[in-house]
Every structure is written in C-alpha cells, then in structure tokens.
Amino acid sequence: MTTLEIRDLHVSVETDTEHKQILRGVDLTINSGETHAIMGPNGSGKSTLAYAVAGHPKYTVTSGTITLDGEDVLAMGVDERAKAGLFLAMQYPVEVPGVTVSNFLRTAKTSIDGEAPKLRTWVKDMKGAMEALRMDPAFAERNVNEGFSGGEKKRHEILQMELLQPKIAVLDETDSGLDVDALKVVAEGVNRVKEQTGLGVMLITHYTRILRYINPDHVHVFVAGKVAESGGPELADRLENEGYDRYVQAAAV
Amino acid sequence: MTLLTDKPRDHVDPQSTVGSPPEESRAARLTSFEVSDFPVPNGREEEWRFTPVDRLGGVFADEADDVRGDDHPADFDVSGVLDVMGDSLAPGQAPRGTVLVPGDRGAVVASAHCAEALYLKLEAEREYVEPLRVNIHGNGAGRLSSAHYVVEAGHHSKALLILDHTGSADHRGNLEVIVGDGAELTVVTLQRWDDDAIHLGQHDAQVGRDATYKHIAVSLGGSIVRVNSNVRYDGPGGDATLLGVYFADAGQHLEHRSFADHNAPHTKSLVTYKGALQGDGAHTVWVGDVLIRKEAEGIDTYELNRNLVLTDGARADSIPNLEIETGEIAGAGHASSTGRFDDEQLFYLMSRGIDETNARRLVVRGFFADIIAKIGVPEVVDTLMAAIEEELEADMGAAA
C-alpha cells in the first residue's frame, strides 16, 4: 500500500522575466489501486501539477509538500523519484536520436531495479507488453520517439509504465491526440497494470472520453491552480454536460 | 533532377556567415609547390578566419624539421606497412605531386620540408585483410615535424589504412591518395594527440573509375588540429565518403574542411561530420565545399554537419558550400545544425530513473550512433567509443 500525498502545493514557473504562480494550494491524496481523474480547463495548471510531481527543473515549488509514503519527494532528484516508484506519462514525450527503444527501456529498468533484468525474462516481458499494446516488434529497434505518430508516442509511454512497474503513475493528457482505437488500447494497458500491480493513478484530462474506458474512483475539478471540487464518477458526467464554465466564473470572482 | 536543400530546422550559425564572402569559385583557389605563393596567414583570409593563426607561428615556418642528432620530432612506426612500402619519394618524384598540390601554407611547408615521402603501393586485385597502420608519435610540443604519405592503391585492390597520431609536436602532414579503378580504400586518420600538439593536414585523394574511397577523420586530442580532406575523380562512377567525428574540450580548436570536387560524371560524394563540444573555449569548425563541374552530369552528393554543444562557452562554426555548374544532377543537398544539449531529453531520461551521468552518456552516444555505424571499422569504433566515454567521464568529473 502506497500513498502519494500532496499538501498545500504552490508552484511557480520560471519564464524569461518572472516567476509566474501556477499552483495555488493543491491538496490531493492518492492511494494504491485508486484512480483519480484531474479534470480542468486549459491553463488551469494540470500539467504543472504533473511536472511538479516528477521534478521538472523549470517548475519551482514555493511552498507545500509532496510525500510518498511519508518520504519527502521534493528532496529527491528526478531519477530518485522514479526509483521511489513515481512515473509520469508525458503529454509530449521528447525524441532521443540514436537511442533505441530497447536500449532505453533496458537502461531505465536497470536503473529502477538497481540491477540488469535477467535477459530471458526481460525479452519475454518486453515482447508480451508490446504485443498487448499492439505494437510491432520492429518498434523496439526504432529511436526513442523519433518519427513516432501521436498514438505511438502514447503507447510507448504506457509500455514504459508496464515494464517499470511504478507505484503511482501520473498520466498527463494521455488521451490527447488519440483516435478511439488507440485510446482503447492505451486504456486497456492502464487497466491491465492497475490490475496486476495495484497501481495508483492520477489521470489528467481535459475531456471525459478516456473515463469511459478507465473508471475513476475520484474526480477532481481543477481550476486556477487548485482543486475546486471533488467527487465520485458522477462529477465527470456533470462536467460532460455542463463544462467548466461554472467553475471558471466562480474562480474569476 | 532533384535538388534538395536543407530542412527548415537546420541552420548555419549566424555568427559563421559574417565576414568576408567566399571566393568566386572553389575551382579558382590557388594551389602551388612554391612556399612563397602562400604567405604566413594573418587570420583575415577566408580559409583561415576561424583558425587561431596567432598560435600557429611555428608550424607555418619555412624551416626544416627539429631534428636533434638521432632524436626526431616524431617517430613513424611503419611496421604495419612494411610489406607495401616502396622506396621513399622526393618532392617532384611521381607519383608524389600528381594528386596533391599544396593548397595552403601548412601544406606547402610540409611538402617543401619532407624530403622523403612514405610510399605505400598496394598491389592490384589484392585484398589486404589486415589493416595497414602507421603510428606517428610526436616527441615534444613545439618541435617542427613534416610528413608526406603517398598511397597508391592498384586497381581492384581493397585495403584499410590507419594513421594514428599520438604524443605532441608541431606537425604538418600531407596525405596523397591514388585510388585505382575499382579499388576500395579506406583511410582513417586518428588525432589522439596530447593537449599541446598542433597538427595541420592536407589529405587529397583521386578516386578512379568505379572506385570507392572512404576518408575518416577522428579528432579527439591536440591543441589545434586542422585536417582538410579533399577528393576528386579520375573517371566516372567513383564513390567517395568523407566522414569526421570530433570531440573538443576547453581551449581546444578542432577544424575540418572537406572538398568534393565533382569533375567527372556519375560520381558520388557523401560527407558527414559530427562533433561534440564541452568546456570554455572549445571551438570546432567544419567547412564543407562541394563543386559540381559542368562535365559532372548525373552526380549525387550530400553533405551534413551536426554539432552538439554540451556546455556554455563552446562554439561550433559550420559552413556548407555547394557550387553547381550543371543542372543535370541526380541529387545535391546539404544540412548543417548546431544544437545545445537538450534539458528536456535529460529530464525525460531521468524521469525513467536514469541518473544524470548515464542520461548524458545515452544522449551523446545516441548523437554519434549513426556516424559510428557508417565508419564500419571495428577497431576505430572501439577506440572512438572508449574516447567518448573518457571525454564524458572527464566532463562529469569537472562538473562534480
């Protein structure tokens, strides 16, 4: 049982000229096995929350805490957070020219586990995970994210999640840019990992459509840098019908 | 005909484009055996404007080598090429001088002061399985050393020649290569000098009909290294690949110039240079000239330079020049780009648990991966990989 606890988190982003405050007191607790949907309009700070959890250097935590089973996440480097069991499926994964998917995955797995995976099981695991995500085996020999379609990039993110087996995963707009078929494949992947490992998920999304395939236990409406309202799955249905206008107007007052 | 220009995201360092405009045509550039035809450069010349000529005084000198009794400025270990060594060649003694006519001050003084050129003559139709190797070891910084090598690869021969430079000297070396019809010759020049070495080199090749020539420059050590790799053709169907890999540290100047002179139809050239830079004052220069002459119909050429700047304070200049005198070509293109080490890549890799050292290593290795695959000489690849590791370790050490 793992708990990610975010308390009164304030985060600013560095631009050329200023520190711009984005998160203004986020409170959130995610336990193993739970799926929390974070929904909100563009610019509400959802991705900032994802990056702050992962430790992107561009974002500065000005106050508040993030802990994983009581351990201070903010004191950890980016790689240490991954080793502690956090994973961020990125909205815009970057290209790494000349580094093959297979080399990248093996290097990451070795780093996370502290030892190289046993060759035979590793090859089998990788093949199995790729098959499940309906990825061509040739994919493993392509360079990381180079020339990947939007769908391939997202599948590759989920593939990493399957193989690295984090405790808590943050999925940042994993549904964006996916057609229905790709969305189903990706959602199946997330559900499979949840079942197998008891993964806790922070599912960041603008639209409700991914929630048709991944059932959230909790839904949080995110507006102007903090959680405006929390509820169960029914909250997502309401957002589907009413949109975010009500919250945005309330925040503007 | 297809005429590819560089992709929009490629760019030439705007800094590099300032200054004097290129000469009218590369074809018009002076070549001569007369030392007096090439005054000591002052740095304002087009060909020398990137080079720190003020630090090159010694190597430009119209003086004999710094020989002290039995103590030579550089030792040449020719044990790897004994079987193919011919009698040494004096200036003007053919085939010396048939392909290489000096094109700058460094080459003309090398030519003038190397009385005995090493002559390697490869038998026609013979495949040399073992690499031919000449080890050049400089015996002291600032000691003037001149060298000239003539390689004549008989028709349909196949061989690999490695020139391996270590130690330190003020070295000026010319390489003259005649690739016979249908021959396959690869020349590797490794610059693994000590930090205080200076090396100017002009490497000229003439590629025979349907012959294949590969020139690979690997520059890792030395204070100032400038290697010019030039190729022209002696008939149609010749195929030249000019590759370069370099890694410049603080204060190091590594310069590579290439010239593919398409003077025959249906010839090919592929020029690829890739380099990494780290540390204050690390400077690399690549100037790639391609000339497609009127008679060179149906040729295909592509040149590419990429630089990866790992730290602040380093500078890469990159200039491709493509001169086309005929419209009847199969393809001609070039690309050049200089990028900084990408923090987003680093973040992405580290977010998968990979520590910073290994993440940087992955990115740099990845950057060099395609050119290393093109080199195709295991011995050179191993040396290069080990050297890159060492450079990265040094960087990590400095950063820590």
The string of secondary-structure elements of chain B, in order, is EHEEHEEEEEEEEEEEEEEHHH
Overall 3D form of chain A: globular
**What does the average pLDDT of chain A come to?**
95
Shape of chain B: globular
Classify the helix fraction of chain B into a percent range. Answer: 10-25%
Kindly estimate the percentage of residues of chain A that lie in beta strands according to DSSP.
25-35%
Spatial strand arrangement across the major sheet of chain A: 6-9-10-3-11-12
Provide a brief overview of the structure.
The complex is a heterodimer of chains A (253) and B (400). Chain A contains eight helices and twelve strands.
What does this entry look like structurally?
The complex is a heterodimer of chains A (253) and B (400). Chain A is α/β, with parallel strands linked by helices. Chain A has helices at 46-54, 78-84, 101-113, 119-132, 150-164, 180-197, 233-242, 245-252, and strands spanning 3-14, 19-31, 35-39, 59-68, 71-72, 86-89, 96-100, 143-144, 168-172, 200-205, 218-223, 226-231. Chain A has one domain (32-43, 85-252): P-loop containing nucleotide triphosphate hydrolases (Rossmann fold), CATH 3.40.50.300. In chain A, strands 6-9-10-3-11-12 form a 6-stranded mixed β-sheet, with helices on both faces. A 4-stranded antiparallel β-sheet of chain A has the order 2-1-4-5. Chain B has one domain (2-341). Chain B is 16% helix and 42% strand. The model of chain B is unreliable at 1-21 (pLDDT under 50). The A-B interface holds A 54-57, 77-79, 81-83, 87-88, 90, 93-99, 103-104, 107-108, 111-112, 143, 160, 164 and B 342-345, 347-356, 358-359, 362-363, 365-370.
Descriptive keywords:
heterodimer, A: 253 residues, alpha/beta, Rossmann fold, 6-stranded mixed beta sheet, 4-stranded antiparallel beta sheet, 8 helices, 12 strands, 30% strand, globular, B: 400 residues, 17-stranded mixed beta sheet, 17 strands, disordered N terminus
